[in-house]
TrEMBL record:
It comes from Pyxidicoccus parkwayensis. Residues 1-22 form the signal peptide. The keyword Acyltransferase applies. Belongs to the gamma-glutamyltransferase family. Pathway: Sulfur metabolism; glutathione metabolism. Its EC number is 2.3.2.2, 3.4.19.13. This enzyme consists of two polypeptide chains, which are synthesized in precursor form from a single polypeptide. Keywords: Acyltransferase, Glutathione biosynthesis, Hydrolase, Signal, Transferase, Zymogen. GO terms for molecular function: leukotriene C4 gamma-glutamyl transferase activity. It holds the Pfam family G_glu_transpept. Gene3D superfamilies: 1.10.246.130, 3.60.20.40. Cleaved by autocatalysis into a large and a small subunit. The gene is ggt. This is Glutathione hydrolase proenzyme. It catalyses: an S-substituted glutathione + H2O = an S-substituted L-cysteinylglycine + L-glutamate; an N-terminal (5-L-glutamyl)-[peptide] + an alpha-amino acid = 5-L-glutamyl amino acid + an N-terminal L-alpha-aminoacyl-[peptide]; glutathione + H2O = L-cysteinylglycine + L-glutamate.
Length: 584
């Protein structure tokens, strides 16, 4: 058998040739991830007789190695897993939680949020959930043993990863943060002639023997090799030495949370997505539901009138998010009401088809709220390409099992803290809480009381792994989709779904198309560089939208199963370095 590396290369070459074209058909399973190595590992699992879960988990562990700036075993995420045989869909929330010693005002001094504290360094670290999550998914839904599923990740860490353009831009964006942590500097940077740490050059190979050892321990010993013993001790010691609050008890107490999928529908297609503590799934259901009411005949692609309705629906969904969403185990989150037909009808009914509604008239911003949790940049960072992080994995196997998994360390390179001697890069997911209700976080998002910091609580998330089912058979997955992009995640998912359902686009085109985003605050309409033609923008501006051109955002990874032919197609966003693969 060819080595994984040779195979990844061959696959990458073939796929690069395919990226610009319509997705190609596969008779077997199909996968889409943001990295050639992760897609190759997923395919390898399918070819070894594994199912969609084996493939997704193998890809997630490889992603932890090859894309440390996006996700990793020091992070957490959400997954939807559909069983093709029983027609059932399960949801696992393995997102990080606030440590026991976390407190509501831990990032506030003299009444103001201290910039950087919730994004950079040890105090930003929440209790990681990825290892518990990946292994639980494998145990409950997979067919292959952890030793097989983790093997590609261990091999990748030993062999080393090369510094890609993405690595470079992500690292440049976080260079100062990485330099503050000696272990992160040692792992991710190189010393120059003056002995200072700087970004390694393009093509430079970074070996990760510590991470390989940690992954090897997990493959043999299971989650306890991470949540107790030397790895847990190293994580807690590193964090505490740097002034953070995470303890070995926090790690030992970590538990994943099974949840009920959030259900909605769009033009006859059943949709299952992530419930709270994700705010993304609620927005996906609300916006699609509102669009169906506002445009029962369907949406013409890029029709300015339809776009206006979309933007106004999104604006209102993000107002609900700011008002109501948080961890449902800690406050009364009215999820059922928010996605109910009555509420969606009210939301749609409040839209003025002629002109933009001022965001402040829907929910006035908190008076005096200013600044952001970040040190070095203005509040809204998501649109900056070098700041993109988080990753999504979509798989549908030959038996119709499907996984949509979004996983993250939050900001680029997480907190920039690596637990000494383990290779584990720790998240900065604490920033997804409201450091002070009303103050925007790193994504410019404003959240409220339900998202205030409490020990053991899950921070509100935008991550929206989503499954869209066939009209003909509401138990058969037609589309698995998700994306990174912080606050822009739900709108990326919504637009891919609309491109497929409304415009009948093949999945590659649906993923490639330009994007449009609003998030209530700031009161701006973001349009990416391929988003809209000037004539369309003029119509929107005439309606009162303040348009902001943004280079690009998101990284949609999607797999489509054609309900008519049973053939599968996969698409990896050309905005990033991933590839989509499948089995002939
Ligand atoms: O859970 C969330 O919403 C964020 N931690 C996701 C971060 C993200 O997607 C960043 N990408 N640009």
């Amino acid at each position: 058998m060819r080595s994984l590396a040779t195979r990844s290369l061959a696959v990458a070459v073939v796929l690069l040739a395919c990226v610009a074209h319509a997705a190609r058909p596969y008779r077997g399973g199909a996968v889409a991830t943001a990295y050639p190595q992760a897609s190759a590992a997923a395919l390898e699992m399918l070819e070894k007789g594994g199912n969609a879960t084996d493939a997704a988990v193998a890809a997630a562990f490889v992603a932890a190695v090859v894309g440390p700036y996006h996700s990793g075993i020091g992070g957490g995420g959400f997954a939807l897993v559909h069983d093709g045989k029983t027609g059932e869909t399960k949801v696992l929330d393995f997102r990080e939680v606030a440590p026991k010693a976390a407190s509501r005002d831990m990032y506030v001094k003299d009444g103001k949020v201290v910039p950087g504290l919730s994004t950079d360094g040890p105090l930003a670290v929440a209790v990681p959930g990825a290892v518990a999550g990946y292994l639980q998914l494998l145990k409950e839904h997979g067919k292959l043993p952890p030793s097989v599923v983790l093997a590609p990740a261990i091999a990748a860490a030993k062999k080393g990863i090369w510094v890609t353009p993405r690595y470079l831009t992500m690292g440049q964006g976080r260079l100062e943060c990485l330099r503050k942590d000696p272990e992160a500097s040692r792992v991710f940077l190189v010393k120059n002639a003056q002995g200072e740490y700087e970004m390694p050059p393009l093509g430079h190979v970074i070996k990760m023997p510590d991470l390989a050892r940690t992954l090897g321990g997990i493959a043999k010993g299971g989650a306890k090799a991470f949540y107790s013993g030397p790895v847990a001790k190293a994580i807690a010691d590193t964090v505490q030495t740097g002034g953070g609050v995470l303890t070995v008890d926090d790690l030992a107490a970590y538990k994943t949370r099974p949840r009920q999928p959030l259900e909605g529908s769009y033009r006859g297609h059943r949709i299952l997505t992530m419930p709270p503590p994700s705010a993304g799934g609620v927005a996906v259901i609300q916006v699609l539901g509102a669009l169906e009411k506002l445009r029962p005949q369907g949406m013409a692609f890029r029709d300015p009138e339809a776009l206006h309705l979309y933007v106004e629906a999104v604006r209102r969904a993000y107002v609900d998010r700011a008002k109501y969403l948080g961890d449902p185990d800690f406050s009364d989150v009215p999820t059922a009401r928010l996605v109910s037909p009555g509420h969606i009808a009210d939301l749609a009914g409040s839209i003025d088809a002629k002109k933009a509604t001022a965001s402040a008239s829907l929910l006035p911003p908190v008076p005096g709220a200013q600044g952001s949790t970040l040190t070095d940049k203005p509040a809204v960072l998501t649109p900056e390409p070098e700041r993109k992080n988080t990753t999504h994995i979509s798989v549908i196997d030959k038996d119709g099992n499907a996984v949509a998994m979004t996983t993250t360390v939050n900001y680029g390179f997480g907190s920039c803290v690596v637990a000494k001697g383990t290779g584990v890069l720790l998240n900065d997911e604490m920033d997804d809480f409201a450091a002070q209700p009303g103050v925007p976080n790193a994504y410019g998002l404003v959240t409220g009381e339900p998202n205030a910091i409490q020990p053991g609580k899950v921070p509100q998330s935008s991550m929206s792994p989503t499954l869209v089912f066939s009209k003909e058979d509401p138990k058969k997955v037609m589309l698995a989709v998700g994306s990174p992009g912080g606050s822009t995640i739900p709108t990326t998912v919504i637009q891919v779904i609309s491109n497929v359902v409304d415009s009948g686009m093949d999945v590659a085109r649906a993923v490639n198309e330009g994007r449009v985003h609003h998030q209530y605050l700031p009161d701006e309409l973001w349009v990416d560089k391929w988003g809209l033609e000037p004539a369309t923008l003029s119509v929107l501006e005439a309606k009162g939208h303040k348009v902001r051109r943004v280079d690009q955002w998101g990284d949609a990874e999607a797999v489509f199963s054609d309900p008519k032919t049973g053939l599968r197609y996969s698409a990896s966003d050309p905005r990033n370095e991933g590839v989509a693969l499948g089995q002939d």
